[in-house]
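User: Hi! I'm working on a homework problem where we have to compare a predicted structure to a textbook description. Could you give me the structure for the chain below?
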Amino acid sequence: MFKKSEFYTLQEIAGDIYLLPYGQALAEQRHGFRMNETGLYLWEKLDVCDDKQMLAEYLNKERGIKASVAQYSVDQFVDRLLQFKVISMETPDEENPCKVLNIANINIGLFGDPIFFYRDELKAFERNSERVDIRFAVRIEFPEVMQSSIIIRTPQLVVEESEEFFILYYPKQKYVHQVRFTKDGCKAIAYVYETGNDTDRKLIGDTLHNALRVFFFYYAKTRGYFALNSASILYKDKAWLFSGPARSGKSTHVELWMRLFDVECLNGDINLIAIEGRNAYILGTPWCGTSQIYSNRICDLGGIIFLAKDIYDHVEELDQSTKGLLITQRIITPAWTIKMLEENIEFANRLKDLILVCRHHCTKNFEAVGVIKQRIDESKYEYQVKGQ
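Assistant: Happy to help. Predicted structure tokens:
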């Protein structure tokens, strides 16, 4: 498919029609073109033609130009526009992915050099499958500039929005131009610099691992899955999530559970949550912060415990509003717009009625685990009755 640059426009000057650059294209001192009748015709047909052959066929059939002459004219016209970046060719999607990941029953096709997807966490999710639900491609090229506006700016990440895409920039990553993905969440393209150094390519891979997470969580919301910053354990056949701000003691608390009660840690940093009927459950993902603890299991969700450091151990019961607020604040599914935030809030309000949600004021002592364990054990009967 042909894609026209958004920085070119047809303008009339003294009775003649010109294709002129403006904005970014003008700043780059790109060429303008005087358009004859055939050029104007072909410019219009670029919107409906997949390739040069289709353009030539239109020119032959609709304009009565000899086939060989039509093909020559099209070749000259298209090659000239490609040369000066007035148009570009969209990469076809028929290429085979280098890997297919199955995360939360979503098949992600990865396209590009496999070294960009070297992370060990991904290996547990690789599948041999021809079905691809969403695509993440890496291109070693400079992206076409497009009109966009900044919606988020931090030292680590800048997010811009255009008419068709969300665009991610990583200011501290010198090898990645940008990652853009369509607003339906089905396709992402990462533009990176050429480097023959495998060490540099792995650095690129680390940044792309983060970008893939953002892209995946954005799409997962369309399936009703929301990501919560939390560490999780498996206790009595249910997942229990411990959440809170940085340095609130999530890792320490989970380690105490593992030492005292020999429970399994499912994920050390992020859990993906879904609701089906009156049942909430978590789905495994490869994103786990620096914990290196992850799982591809699906487990029923028993509750979310929000941790707060304190001088003695006790559990605080929460009102409904506070439950919804705390869940919303720890959801890391993108909330770049008001609509996205409202979707996160709506999910949090549904979730709080299905599971235990409380705040555990705790110390670093062994006794802290015993206090919250007792509350969890009591909740089993509460929510069995509530679900009837």
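For your comparison, note the following. Residues 384-388 have pLDDT under 50 and may be disordered. Residues 284 and 295 are 5 Å apart (CA to CA). Good luck with the assignment!
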